[in-house]
Amino acid sequence: MLTFWPRIVDATVETLLMVGISLVFATLIGLPLGIALVVTREGGLLENKWIFSVFNSVVNFFRSIPFIILLVAILPVTRLLVGSSIGTAAAVVPLVFFTGPYIARLVESSLLEVKPGIVEAAEAMGATPWQIVLYVLLPEALSSLVLNITIATIGLIGASAMAGFVGGGGLGDLAIAYGYQRFETEIMVITVLLLVVLVQLIQTIGNGLSRKIRRH
Length: 216
Prior knowledge:
single chain, 216 residues, mainly alpha, MetI-like fold, 9 helices, Methionine ABC transporter permease, MetI-like, MetI-like_sf, AA_ABC_Transporter_Permease
């Protein structure tokens, strides 16, 4: 069993890298997309039903595809972008495609929680739509955004584990290769426990940050 610990440590690092890199890129996609969904919707600051329909359809399309299917479906894109369809780097591509639209919906939900009266007050003071987004909507929704990004991060951890089915690396790959295919029960138990601890840690940090922001 001791000989497996270096592999467990390496797999944990791979999972953290996958989740961290994917979260950054998915947020860079999901945050502006979520803002666009809010400002272009009916009654929004920059109402445009055509743009809203396009963005809304794109988000719905990717969110309707189960991750394990998306993982296989975009293998050609993954090979094109990173030169391989297996490994940690290759797993990041489908994780971003999967999580970006999900974050967009979470951002949309958070921004829509902001009371309309606050936005109307900013408009009455002559603020431009983008000033309202930057200095009113985002700050007011920050606590909710932190919680929703926490939810997205936990979802990423689960998806990264599924990436192990196609050799994506990380704890999921280790659990499948040794715990499932070779019936190494101890390896399976350890990987599950590590994933549970990781999720609990991230949720605790997210809850704490959200509470701290809400008090200010």
